[in-house]
Amino acid sequence: MRIKPLRLGPVTLPSNVVMAPMAGYTCYPFRMLCQEMGAGLCFTEMVSANALKYQDRANRQLLFTTPAERVKAAQLLGGDPQIVEKAACGPLLAGFDLIDLNMGCPTPNVFKSGQGSALLADLPRAEALIRACKRSGKLISVKFRIGIRADEPVAAEFARMCEQAGADLISIHGRSRSMMYDGPPCWEQIQLAKAAVSIPVLANGGIASPEDAAWMMERTGADGVMIGRYALENPYIFAQLTGRRVVKSRSALLLEQMALASRYYDEPFVLSYIRSLASYLMKKRRGTKGYKQKMYQCGGLEELETLIRAAFREEEPL
Question: Which CATH number applies to 6-242?
Answer without folding.
Answer: 3.20.20.70
